[in-house]
Amino acid sequence: MEETNCSLAHYLTLYQSRRSTLLKRRGGLVDDHPEPVATTWSLAFERVEQANPLASELLRFCSFLYPEDIPEELITKNVAQLGPVLQAIGTEPLALDGAIATLLNYSLLRRTAEKGTLSMHRLVQAVLKDEMDSTTQCRWAERVVLAVNWSFPQIAVETWPVCQMYLPHALECAAHIAQWELATAEAASLLLQAGYYLDNRGQYEQAEPLLQRALTTRERVLGPEHPDTVRTREIYTNLLQEMKKRAQAADSQQ
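User: That's the sequence. What structure does it adopt?
Assistant: Structure tokens below.
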């Protein structure tokens, strides 16, 4: 931005359409940093891969989640869903700590021990994804959807705090489901759980597209008369009725 004297809005527009190209550019105004962002982190990824392959797989998994407050239990309780390399976490208790230590050493991950969560920079996620081909991206998206679906709790007042913790990751998964057109029972289940939670909290506008996609997916995967499809249709219909009542009430007050 300083080099070209462009506005933040202009740079953001360029970033959204030319992210990979921008991150590979080397600005000309600063001399004490020899490499562009993408190259710097790519070199770090290569060193992590050599030092600890499990750490590099953990980083790839986290790159498809919301970047803040990634619950460690999302990893430890779902190792069967995360591919052959990360499955080692299930049999070796020290494996996860070793992987995290490697990533902390390269400043690619942050750990908040008191919350039991991990975080990573959005640009690290972006560079990692840009280095994957479409097949690899889709495979990781599927794994993340499976893991978040298994971890998202059943909706009840007492589980609301846990639901809220997992909601940002579920919304990231919803974007993956749309991008890769993932029509699976697990994708539909996660969309339903996230949408139903938002519905319960009165956030109807956010809930509606999630429940609509959950219904469409279940009709496609299970058929229109399957009990899970019928239940999803009832939840979605009730939501539409509540939205209609709210709209009518707002109109009557004007």
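The domain at 132-254 is CATH 1.25.40.10 (Serine Threonine Protein Phosphatase 5, Tetratricopeptide repeat).
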